[in-house]
Specification:
Shape: flat
Structural class: alpha+beta
Mean pLDDT: 85
Radius of gyration: 43 Å
Oligomer: single chain
Distance between the termini: 95 Å
Helix content: 25-40%
Strand order of the largest sheet: 17-16-15-14-13-18-19
Largest sheet: 7 strands, antiparallel
Strand content: 25-35%
Length: 561
Amino acid sequence: MAIEWDRIGQPSFDRHVEALLYRMFDGGSGRVIAVNGRGGDAGIDVQVTTDAGLRIFQLKYFPDGFPGSLKSRRSSIKKSFNRAMQHAPVEWTLVVPCTLTASERTFVDNLPNGRPVTVSVLDRPGLDGGFAEHADLEASFTRDQLREAARDFNQEQALLLGGNDLVERVRGLGSRADNVDPDWTWDFARRGESVVRTLRAKHPLSHEASPITLRVTGRTDAMSADLTAAITRALGFGIAEEVTLPPAAVESLTIDGPAWLAETVTSPMLIWKPVPTAERAGAPVEVTFLDTSGTVAARYAGRLNAVGSGGLGASIDADINGARLQMMLPFDTTAAATLRYSFDLEGREPADAIKVLRLHQRLLLGGDLRLTINGQRGGSGQLPSTGTADDLRQVERLLLYLADLDVVQRHCEAYFPTPLTYTAQERIDVRVARLIIEGCCVAYPYARTLTLTLNGRDDPTVRRLLSDEPQGLRISPPGFEITVGGRSLDIGAVHLFHTRLTIEKAREALAALRSGQGAGKKIVLRPNHGEHFRVFLADSNDDGQPLMPTPLGLDGLTEPR
């Protein structure tokens, strides 16, 4: 239904035209601004800024035109044009709701009178054409006209003119869908230009009274190993995992069932996601590992995510300390069960990460295990050992790092997620910190020399230190600070010492001291035989035993002497 331009009035005319100009230009070929004329429009009703320059639209609601006999209308147009020229537009357009006569068009064409501006007219045919290109815009403006026509024929609801009309129409369409089949119905939703249909059983025995089967003919050459494995998990064992089959991998989909539903679709894209059984979700789960004698070696508790079932067997999906464990149990008792495990240490504090990593280590080593759900047996079997020697060595390295950092965090009472990337010095410092916290003495790899500055005071102790004989020395700095993951941790006061030190250029330093010129003189102390200074925590218990360095025990690191 076309807009009735001669009946809508000036305010509606302005609103219609402004909306059309926004649709035609804004965000594309130009920037549109409609000017509120209450303070004077300065010759501009709508302006469009384009790459070519400023374009001005002047709106005049003259439904019956502006013939020569109506000089006031022509005078109004001319005044608006002259005011607009103050803005130096490249084009000026008169917008009117009528179709211009030859005389009226000549009047508009003569407006420039030599000025460098293009003049044009957007009259009724142009407006009708513009709204025809934007049918949704036209429909929104003609609702009142449609309402009047629909009311005449008692068809208001058919045109969705009432506030609840859409809801009622959808509900009515749903009722029609419910009446198609006694066992099945469609639920549906619109999402943009797409309509999503969901098949729903109308009663618990629908699948028996009217079975529906899906047959997929795939192109195995177009399926990757990962996609094949995902299909097996989802369709074979009912793991609640979304699997997308691209059209290249699907030759056809055949739906067998009631006549109104049955069809074959070629090269569809299929998205499959089994619905997990939620009735036992959240139930307590426990994974138990047994040693070769059948004795319990470890237990890990968690919660059930879901149980599922597919064409090949059943599945159990559980959360163990934030890690996901999926057990797939074939219906064929002679076939081996499969266990899938995934975890992420990111964001975990060391104590929590240790639990997850130890479970991972157990799974790599393999062996007998049991899984119970709410105290009832859910599955059991023997896992093969899948971890290589390198895999297990990497796990041991990471477990030691987590254990070291856990001790340091508890000692400093500073808790934060485990930094999973670190420098060699950060790793060594965390190890050293853990050992001295536990009362050990350690050869510190980053302390080969110690530089002291003399204050010039001549003292027998200093003279003895500067003698030719190796000397022992202990220094007690107030704190031992390490950095890991950008965080500084102060372990506390420590003692740094060595029993046999050599001082570089000791005689020169002694002579300077004797001559009264020792102040500011630097001396470098170096442990004999290429050894390192020893460090231990100041408040460690003294057991009366010699302070022998404890090995760091880091894989790949040569022990400091």
